[in-house]
Prior knowledge:
Blueprint (H helix, E strand, L loop, with lengths): L10 H10 L24 H26 L13 H9 L6 E3 L5 H6 L4 H8 L23 H15 L6 E6 L6 H12 L4 E7 L2 E2 L2 E2 L13 H4 L3 E5 L3 H19 L2 E6 L19 H8 L3 H11 L5 H24 L5 H8 L5 H14 L2
Parallel strand pairs: 1-2, 2-3, 3-7, 6-7
Antiparallel strand pairs: 4-5
Helix pairs in contact: 2-3, 2-11, 2-12, 3-9, 5-12, 6-7
Bound molecules: thiamine diphosphate (TPP) and magnesium ion.
Amino acid sequence: MASKKKTPFDAVKVLEQIEEKFEMFQILNEEGKVVNEDAMPDLSDEQLQELMSRMVYTRILDQRSISLNRQGRLGFYAPTAGQEASQIASHYALEKEDWVVPGYRDVPQIIWHGLPLAQAFLFSRGHFKGNKSPEGVNVLPPQIIIGAQYVQTAGIALGLKKRGKEAVAITYTGDGGSSQGDFYEGINFAGSYNAPAIFVVQNNQFAISTPRDKQTKGKTIAQKAVSAGIPGILVDGMDPLAVYAATKDARDRAVAGEGPSLIETLCYRYGPHTMAGDDPTRYRTDDMDTEWEKKDPLVRFRKFLEEKDLWNEEKENEVIEKAKEEIKAAIKEADDTPKQKVTDLMEIMYEEMPYNLNEQYEIYKEKESK
Ligand SMILES: Cc1ncc(C[n+]2csc(CCOP(=O)(O)OP(=O)(O)O)c2C)c(N)n1
Ligand SMILES: [Mg+2]
């Protein structure tokens, strides 16, 4: 039986008071109407159109990637449809000198940061050339180890601070990733050193088949920021304007020397976890899919732009055609890239080949020259 003993403080109330603060931040509702005029970001008409173009392009890239994977022309692929606002609008708030530290689902952000599409396809095929970004393109290869990118980001951000750069490091994980030790280590370290980092959790409701409510007893993931003493914000991750505004604010504070932020974007992945064979119908209902599809970021942003006469079918078709052409050219470039050799891997691994590998290296060189 519960005791009625008087306690010196109400611990449960403290938690409730904290959780009350984490309301979902939204600017554009599901109908494409602005519901939070005060928070409207300062974006020109051209920028709004560019943001839409990038989201449409990314949706096409996702559809094509799924189909190329089914044809056996791509390897590892984690679908992105449903997450365009979370991915593209957060990236849109960045500058070229910022560092993007992606997880495996975050290929769109690194492409928009400058990684050539052909290289993204090579990454999917496990080719080492996919992982070496061109000079001046500040991206890391997509991280497969869940949460590890949070620790790397704290380090990169501290490096930027020590070098006096006016830039941030941004990283992405999922709802599942927020349960990893690396998640806490990353946000805590960056907080302690006031490092210019932005930590995004794309809460797409599932970690493979594990539902969000199994990840934490907390009502939100954003509130985990409290433990690190950094600002946390819960954002409608299907609303591009809200995601942009939240990320822009986090970036402004970071470059002003105010340290890191944690942003949770509430979103949904329409497709399977990856193309490796999971079946979402085993862990999700049609009703749930339909509910989330009503929140679609492209649909609501299209309505918003059409209302302002900034978007139409013709514009959208132009983007779709451009995306298809570029994807076709990039896959050809990936096809034309010479297959990787064992000697390539040995060469890129060492500046100077260790003596005990010399013999093997010579054997492969001989074999591969035939
Ligand atoms: C350290 C580690 N543990 C387990 C896995 C296997 N794994 C791959 S994806 C995944 C789920 C991640 O879910 P979430 O963080 O929500 O990201 P999402 O895939 O939904 O974008 C798991 C457990 C892994 N890659 N790394
Ligand atoms: Mg997830």
